[in-house]
């Protein structure tokens, strides 16, 4: 796929506009949201593991791993801002124009929330499968 010079110039202008001071200020909000979202998922997982009477170490490992993944999910948009913007504006959205000032903020929040939900569902299905394997008698067929 060949790109002409005009398209390349528009892409460079777009990248410069996204890296402006205003977008950097909005980006710094995503990790702050993660500071509140991660403990929510930690509490949710810990309460569920307590309800299921899992051992204390297992409770802490599952809750901690989901919490760390959740916070990393909200930190990724700040670390890989240009990559996320390029994927969104040139891969998902039809035209590389920001509709509202909050579109970037919602994009970053969505990335963090999706990764947090993936970590939570990994816990839900992973812990159920592991506990189902533990209930089966070993060595008997």
Would you identify the regions where 5 or more consecutive residues have pLDDT less than 50?
A: 4-8
How many E-type strands?
A: 0
Count the DSSP helices.
6
Q: Count structural domains.
A: 1
* Helix content estimate: over 70%
* Amino-to-carboxy terminus distance: 58 Å
Q: What structural class results from the helix and strand content?
A: mainly alpha
The SSE order reads: HHHHHH
* Beta-strand content bin: under 5%
Characterize the main sheet. Answer: none
Principal-axes shape call: elongated
Radius of gyration: 21 Å
User: Mean pLDDT, nearest integer?
Assistant: 80
Quick structural overview:
The chain has helices spanning 5-18, 21-27, 29-51, 56-79, 81-92, 103-135.
Characterise this structure.
With 141 residues, this protein is an all-alpha fold. The chain has one domain. 80% of the residues lie in helices and 0% in strands. It has helices at 5-18, 21-27, 29-51, 56-79, 81-92, 103-135. Helix 3 (29-51) packs parallel to helix 6. The longest helix has 33 residues, at 103-135. Mean pLDDT is 80; it is low at 4-8.
């Amino acid at each position: 796929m060949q790109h002409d010079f005009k398209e390349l110039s528009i892409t460079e202008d777009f990248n410069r506009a996204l890296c402006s001071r205003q977008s950097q200020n909005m980006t710094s909000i995503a990790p702050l949201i993660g500071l509140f979202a991660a403990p929510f998922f930690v509490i949710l997982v810990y309460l569920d593991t307590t309800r299921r009477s899992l051992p204390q170490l297992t409770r802490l490992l599952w809750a901690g791993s989901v919490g760390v993944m959740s916070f990393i999910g909200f930190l990724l948009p700040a670390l890989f801002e240009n990559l996320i913007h390029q994927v969104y504006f040139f891969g998902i959205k039809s035209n590389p124009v920001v509709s509202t000032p909050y579109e970037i903020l919602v994009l970053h929040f969505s990335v963090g929330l999706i990764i947090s939900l993936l970590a939570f569902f990994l816990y839900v299905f992973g812990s159920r499968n592991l506990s189902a394997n533990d209930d089966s008698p070993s060595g008997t067929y």
